[in-house]
Automatic annotation (TrEMBL):
This is Alkaline proteinase inhibitor/ Outer membrane lipoprotein Omp19 domain-containing protein. Keywords: Signal. Residues 1-24 form the signal peptide.
Length: 135
């Protein structure tokens, strides 16, 4: 007696069609990408600490972000800084998607978001940061 299923693919389709509904996955069970919650994690210290060159147009500020803990974050050292809004930076901390540079009283001087492998941009787009080759 022949089953009428001569092609191996037809056999697989027939088996899958008989599978229990308990193991079947329907479209209703799978969330659409827009329904899937975005993973928002705090940036890793290891991805950020180091020497940075922050630009505001032609104006440059050199910042050393340390991995050493200090206050509410980590030590920051601002050197040769021609960007007035960053001169008082002394602490930095990682935040979701980037980092913040803090000044006296833990006041946020600037918040940066990651834009590339070794590039950051302030939330208003005015300041752009990249790893400094040398200080």
């Amino acid at each position: 007696m022949t089953s009428g299923l001569k092609h191996p693919r037809a056999v697989v389709v027939a088996i899958l069609a008989m599978a229990s509904p308990a193991i079947a996955c329907t479209a209703e069970d799978t969330p659409m990408p827009s329904q899937t919650p975005a993973v928002r994690t705090v940036a890793a210290v290891d991805d950020i600490y180091g020497l940075w060159s922050i630009r505001d147009g032609d104006t440059v500020c050199r910042i050393a972000l340390s991995a050493l803990k200090a206050g509410v974050g980590h030590q920051a050292s601002v050197e040769r800084c021609a960007v007035p809004s960053l001169r008082e930076g002394s602490i930095w901390r990682p935040v979701v998607g980037g980092f913040e540079l803090l000044g006296p009283g833990d006041r946020v001087l600037a918040r940066f978001r990651k834009t590339g492998l070794d590039t950051f941009e302030s939330m208003d787009g005015r300041l752009r940061g990249e790893r400094a080759v040398e200080f």
